[in-house]
Structures are given as structure tokens and as C-alpha cells.
What we know:
Chain A: Keywords: Membrane, Transmembrane, Transmembrane helix. The complex is a heterodimer of chains A (273) and B (270). With 273 residues, chain A is mainly α.
Amino acid sequence: MSTLDRTWWHKQWRHLRLWRRFFAQAVVRETHFRAHFLTTLLVGLVQLGLGIVPTLLLFGFTAEVHGWSRAEVIALVGVFQIVTGLMATFIAPNLNRMTTYLTEGELDSVLLRPVSSQFYLTLRWINVAELTNVASGIVVLVIGLVQAGIGFGPGQVAQAVVLVGTGLVLLTAVWSAMSFLAFWLQSVNPIGFVFLNLMEAGRYPLVFFPAAVRTFLTFAFPVAFATTFPVRALTGDLGWGTVAVGLGLAVVAQGLVRLLWRRGLLTYSSASS
Amino acid sequence: MSTVTRNLRVVRRMTAADIAQQSVYRGAWIIFMLANITMPIISLLIWRTALASGAQLPVDERYVTTYFVLLGFVTMATSSWMAGFLAQDIRMGKLSSWMIRPASLLTGFVANNLSEKFLKLFALVPMIGIVWWIFRDSMNIPAGPGRWVLFALSILLGAMLVFTIDILIASLAFWMDDVSALVQARVIIASVLSGAVVPLALMPSWSRGFVDHQPFRYTVSFPVEIVAGQLTGRELLVGLGIQLGYVVVFAAIARLVWSAGIRAYSAVGA
Lengths: 273, 270
């Protein structure tokens, strides 16, 4: 433990305070670029509209697919929009910089700071404008839930929120792991594309995929925890068991990413000095 | 020597040089192509599930499967990514140095387009081959080489069409400060209207007249349709005619706008 913090808890508290500063700074920064805010909002809305086209077309040909009605899948698209919005706000601006951090030697100045370098690299930059997509996602989710006529209690909402949270942690872990490969590969810019394209599978319920792909989307690329499971929790056919599995997986994934980060740092030999 | 032969020779040399340069990033191309076939595979699985659970689609399983297996290849083969770069070259004044060279700045972009596609082929074709093999029992494979020749021809025309549309958008940088929003708009609109997200055959019937005749259909969907089936001999010929027409029209407009832009160009940084 460094001399900065008396206990482990103090260290977490310090990082949380630091993150609040990052957020406040990002908000101030955003007010300087109002056009950026507006274009992000517009592009987000157009993408949301076009992203829902396949779903609407699909349910023009059938009323139900594997027990999912149109309204339920629309609710799912809402959750997908919320999750991708949150990733784009808090995670993407950081992991997209990974190649630069390593090849330009910016990592040097991060390592010198009295802060967890993994925390700093994963959460330093925040794109506040992307939060508009979270807002539009919530609207779509509510429309879907109302259309489906789903009634749910506070317990189910709690399940759904926890599941979205574990989904976010799991997806961040997968993307981080893919990005940290930069230590060995030098350039990982295209990896972001692969990640975002795989994310698209989260637009659809898990049961729309063949069994083998379902396993992949639950355990290897766990987008199911971020979209399908929260909606199923709201419709009431998911127990706390899945939530527990998600939490367990999230802890394991974080541990593995931490390990990968430490291994990667050992191979880092600075780029500029 | 005529201008055409000279330009072709320049393009050939620059393409060869570009291939040598770009092959350094072999690993990146493989990852890019992996991303490229992810969406078509997701769509393929979704639509096959819909069919299997009794959805009444206007097309059958073989059409859907063939369509999405070939989709990744055709979107790659007809793609263009130069609009943003060309606009930047115009805005930052890089165009200046090309104005005194014996070839157009555009030859560099043609060479870049061809060389990257050449390298992407090596990464993409094996991947498509694997997906094809997995779904081999429900693939439509046209008998005889005729349809494949037309497929190749149509891809070539589609690539020219996308490229000219990109020149057109980038040329606006002669007058506008920032065309990135336009570039983004083109990508988003094209993804739906070209059939890259959903086969155009699945679009609602009220939109048919528009969907079948707008230019973006001829950038991706039409070449795929040639192999996936359904087009009669007459529709095929009419389609190729329309495609050629669009290429000529867009090339003419792009040429007009480009030369007007060159005259308006004020050489930033000179």
C-alpha cells in the first residue's frame, strides 16, 4: 500500500473521487463543443432508428419468434441502446486510445502518476454527449415495455439493473483484454471494430441464435448478460441464479484482466525514452 | 502517349508500391475482415431462425443463406473509404503538390483502393469459404459460368459507383470546412439502402418502387442478387443497364464538381 492511502478502502475512495473530477471536467469540456453534442445526438437517433429496421421488418413476417413478441424485442433494443451508450460514454474513448498510449509512449507519464494505471487507462476520458443515447434507449425501453404490457416489481428491476451492471463489467473486461493485446501486437486499432461488430449480436434475444453461438454469447463474449438477461428479468422469467452467475463471472473476468494487464506491463519497454 | 494509358500506368505502379507497403499490416487486415463478416453472419443466423420458426418471408432459406454468405465479400469489394482522406488532402493543401505532377491526385486514391482490396481478399476469401462450407447444403450455386461473369462485372460497376459517390462528397470540401458529417450520413444511409443490413427483397411492398431503383441498391444488393437467385434474364439486363447508367451519371457529376472545385481551390499553405 502506498503512503498515500492508509487502507485499501481509502485507495478505492480516492479513485472514486478522482473519477468524479474526470466526469466534472468532461461536462465542462462538452459545454465548449455544443455542435459536437448536437451531431452526436442526431447521429445517435438516426442509428437507433435504422438499427431497429431489421427487427421491425422481421416482425412484419411473423408475430412471435421463440416466445419473443415484437414489443419485447423493442424493449431489448432499448436496453442494447442504453448499454452501447454507456460503453461509448465511459469506455470507448479510453480503449480506442490504447495503441497511442503504447506506441507514442504516453503510458510513461501515466505510470509515473500516483494512481492505478489500469484504472486511469480504462476510465480517464468520458464522452458526455453519448449519454443522449442512453436517454433515447430508456425511451425505447419504456415504449417496448408498455406495448408488451409487462408488469414488474421492484425485485425484478433490481435484477435487471444488476444484470446490466455485470454485463457492462464483463464487456469492458473483454474489450480491455482485447486492447491490452497491444502490448504484444503493437497496433490494436482494428480490434475495436471487431468488438463493436460482435456487440451487434446483443440487438437480438439469445434464443434467436443456434445453441453453440448462445454459449459463445453468454460466456466468451458475454453480451447476453447486458441485454437478453435484463429484459428476461423484467418479464419475470429469470431467477436470482443467473444474477449470481453474472456477478461471479464479472469478478473472475476482472481478475483475469488484472493479471493480463500486469503481464503486459512487464513487457512494456517505453516508446520514447 | 494518351492520357488514359499514362494514368493507367501510374495507377498500376502506385498499386504495386502500395501493396508492398500495406502488406506490413497483414495482421490488421485479418482482424478487419473478421469484423467485416461478423454482421452478415449475425443477420444470417437471425433470419434463418425466423424462417425456421415459421415466418412467412417472400424469399426462401437458400436465398437468405446465399445472400448473407456473399454479402461480406461484396461489401468489401465495392467499398470506398477515401472520402474523409480526400477531403482532408483538399482542406490541408496536400492537393497542391499533385497539381504540378503528371497525374491526378485521384490516381493515388484508386491505387490505394485497389491495393487494400487485393490484400483484404487473402484474409476474406478463406473466411467466406469456411462460412460457405458450414452452410453448403442451403447455398444457391448458379449452374454455368454465365452468372458468375455477370456477378464479377456487376461488382466492378458497383465499386466504380461507390468510388464516384465518394469523390462527389469529398469534392464538397473545396467549399465546405467539414464534410465528415456528410461522409457519416452517406455511410449510415447506404448501409440500409444498399441491402447491407437487410436484403432489399425483405423491404415492405410499399417501398418497392423506390428501393429497387435508387442508386445504393446497385452498390451491394444487385451483385449479390445475381448469384442468390430470383432475377429473371430480363431483370438482369435491365439491372445492369441501370447500374451502368448510374456509374456514367455519377461519374459525370463528380467530374463536373471536381473540376469546378479545382478552379475554386485556393491552395491552403502555399
